[in-house]
Specification:
This protein is of the alpha+beta class and 166 residues long. It is built from four helices and seven strands. The protein has one domain: Gcn5-related N-acetyltransferase (GNAT) (Aminopeptidase), CATH 3.40.630. Strand 4, helix 3 and strand 5 form a beta-alpha-beta unit. Helix 1 crosses helix 2. It starts with a strand and ends with a strand.
């Protein structure tokens, strides 16, 4: 398993991963058919990222991109120490240390860029993800009520964070 920073060369693979996740899980934000499916736009997005503000790391099993973590740093000076995380792993690879590897890479990036707070939201019924986040030191800070509408039902999300000490 290799975790690496995604670049424009990974654009098609990353788009394929996102489309796969859209179709196989209801734990991600986007529904099937909702995402821009242009490989060119994805390559452009990856090539235009400011590495001090945004990072996307991918987990590769040989040539297959099977997971990712996206960190987006707050641009306001008072909140610049904080980055929001989105992570997704294909179902066949969940529970196989990939989540921990991706979160470790996120912390390495955070240390390099003086980010001392990582934050995320997770659906309250995504038990496996919550267990992983808690295992690596994230804590629940609150509940975002009726945060999402999934299959006609409102879903709550937990706000979670991890304070990093360097």
């Amino acid at each position: 398993m290799e975790v690496k920073n995604l670049t424009a060369a990974d654009g098609s693979a990353f788009l394929g991963l996102l489309l796969k996740l859209d179709n196989e899980t209801k734990f991600m934000l986007m529904e099937p058919g909702e995402r821009d499916t242009s490989p060119e736009n994805m390559c452009k997005r990856l090539s235009n990222m400011d590495e001090t503000a945004v990072a996307i790391f991918g987990a590769y099993d040989n040539e297959n991109l099977v997971g990712f973590i996206n960190l987006s740093r707050n641009s306001a000076n008072r909140a610049r120490h904080s980055a929001y995380i989105v992570m997704g792993i294909v179902a066949a690879y969940t529970g196989k240390v990939i989540g921990g590897l991706l979160l470790n890479k996120a912390e390495e990036w955070a240390a390099k860029h003086n980010v001392s707070r990582l934050e995320l939201t997770v659906m309250v019924h995504n038990i496996n993800a919550i267990k992983l986040y808690e295992k690596v030191g994230f804590i629940k800070e609150g509940v975002k009520k009726n945060s999402l509408l999934v299959d006609g039902e409102y879903v709550d999300e937990y706000y979670m964070s991890k304070i990093l000490c360097y």
